[in-house]
């Protein structure tokens, strides 16, 4: 298993609008295609205007196949075009994490 850890940094004042749109439109599309939704977290202390989104996959190949299918989905293409048009995201960082042998399964 691998964990995809995505950090998004937003312009101040745009996180709530993005989160509402993501919950209503983006997350349902991703749940159709991606494997296990681990969660979406919002910064409260520290680097503000930041979210962390996590998905678990069986392997890198599993992740690649699932994301390719999602990218080909017209619903996703429409959603992501609208997200970029919001001009809210300042930075996006993606890490692929391998669990330690004693980590609990996700």
From TrEMBL:
Record domain NIPSNAP: where: 4-104
Pfam assignment, any one: NIPSNAP
Domain of life: Bacteria
Signal peptide per UniProt: none
PANTHER family in the record: NIPSNAP-RELATED, PROTEIN NIPSNAP
Family: Belongs to the NipSnap family.
UniProt protein name: NIPSNAP family protein
């Amino acid at each position: 298993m691998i964990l995809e850890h995505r950090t998004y940094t937003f312009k101040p004042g745009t996180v709530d609008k993005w989160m509402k749109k993501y919950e209503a439109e983006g997350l349902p599309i991703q749940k159709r295609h991606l494997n296990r939704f681990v969660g979406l977290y919002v910064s409260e202390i520290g680097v503000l205007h930041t979210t962390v989104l996590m998905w678990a996959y069986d392997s890198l190949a599993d992740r690649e196949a699932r994301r390719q299918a999602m990218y080909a989905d017209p619903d996703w293409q429409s959603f992501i075009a609208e997200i970029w048009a919001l001009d809210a995201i300042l930075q996006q960082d993606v890490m692929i994490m391998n669990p330690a042998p004693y980590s609990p399964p996700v």
